[in-house]
């Protein structure tokens, strides 16, 4: 039913690159082809080579380089009158904005990308852009607004037999079910995503699906050893492909699993590792979530209650700034879990 996964963001002379190509190899090939296209005055080819360069930088966590690359790709595509390439560049920019935690900007860029993709008749970039909008809304916690879009994109991907997009949509819907407490449904969807990704040789999608399964196994089944084994399997792919962001989120989930198992000292070390990784790629959402895990672990290990409360108060502002609608609920839950007074009483608590 599903063919081998492919990477439509690798275009022009770079279509021979695999979805599983090491990102350092993609960056090297993309940069070489970009320079060759610029020397030849081939603007369309330069724009499409520049897209691969932008995506490699983004996935390697090199935010400033990714920002320059997608904007250069867009400018070159516009000069060439290539609407489809313009749409792909905006998709890359919107995806980078989401990674950086600039969610309103991500939404605007991805919406523009979808519109340009439709105008250009490029159903793939339109689909990827709509998928990016759905993921942005899901990250913000606006499940009601984006669940239908996720399901529509899943149906379209299944109809086309497009494995990579099917896996992405399944994982997005599964995450919504997980976050709303429907663990069995979430597990089944992550399991299907893992199977499709494995069959299509989509190692990136497979790694993210394993991370989702590990989360459910930890929360629902209270089986930390199996969860850690799943994360370990996913980590192999992340390292071999240099998936910096996916690896950091893998480590953050490892911290979650250890914390739930009451292994607070181990969780503290892993959360600190993930925090450093998110710092290195300027990823504020991951950084805030890893920091929250670290705060909770330190509290369990005897940190001063007033200091813990003060840092949780600070994290409220950080999560609000990113635009996470459920951020305050996360902090409220952490306070209840740690036996701290509600935020409104933080001042009295600090003065005790």
TrEMBL record:
It comes from the Bacteria. Signal peptide: none annotated. The keyword Magnesium does not apply. Pfam families: TPR_12 (PF13424), TPR_2 (PF07719). Keywords: Repeat, TPR repeat. The keyword Repeat applies. This is Tetratricopeptide repeat protein.
């Amino acid at each position: 039913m599903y063919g081998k996964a492919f990477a439509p963001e690798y275009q022009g002379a770079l279509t021979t690159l695999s979805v599983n190509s090491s990102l350092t190899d993609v960056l090297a090939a993309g940069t070489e082809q970009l320079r060759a296209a610029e020397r030849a005055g081939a603007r369309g080819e330069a724009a499409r080579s520049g897209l691969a360069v932008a995506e490699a930088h983004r996935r390697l966590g090199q935010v400033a380089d990714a920002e320059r690359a997608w904007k250069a790709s867009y400018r070159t595509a516009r000069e060439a009158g290539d609407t489809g390439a313009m749409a792909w560049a905006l998709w890359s920019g919107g995806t980078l904005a989401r990674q950086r935690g600039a969610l309103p900007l991500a939404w605007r860029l991805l919406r523009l990308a979808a519109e340009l993709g439709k105008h250009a008749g490029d159903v793939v970039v339109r689909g990827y852009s709509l998928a990016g909008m759905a993921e942005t809304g899901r990250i913000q916690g606006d499940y009601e607004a984006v669940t239908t879009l996720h399901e529509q994109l899943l149906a379209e991907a299944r109809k086309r037999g497009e494995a990579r997009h099917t896996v992405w949509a399944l994982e997005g819907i599964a995450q919504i079910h997980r976050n709303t407490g429907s663990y069995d449904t979430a597990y089944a969807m992550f399991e299907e995503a893992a199977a499709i990704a494995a069959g299509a040789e989509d190692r990136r999608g497979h790694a993210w699906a394993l991370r989702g399964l590990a989360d459910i196994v930890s929360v629902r089944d209270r089986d930390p050893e199996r969860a850690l084994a799943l994360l370990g399997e996913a980590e192999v792919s992340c390292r071999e492909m240099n998936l910096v962001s996916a690896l950091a989120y893998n480590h953050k989930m490892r911290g979650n699993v250890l914390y739930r198992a009451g292994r607070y000292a181990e969780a503290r070390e892993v959360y600190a590792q993930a925090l450093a990784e998110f710092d290195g790629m300027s990823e504020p959402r991951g950084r805030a979530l890893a920091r929250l895990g670290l705060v909770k672990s330190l509290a369990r290990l005897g940190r001063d209650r007033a200091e813990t409360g003060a840092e949780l108060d600070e994290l409220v502002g950080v999560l609000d700034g990113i635009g996470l609608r459920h951020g305050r609920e996360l902090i409220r839950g952490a306070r209840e879990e740690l036996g701290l007074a509600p935020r409104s009483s933080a001042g009295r608590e600090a003065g005790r």
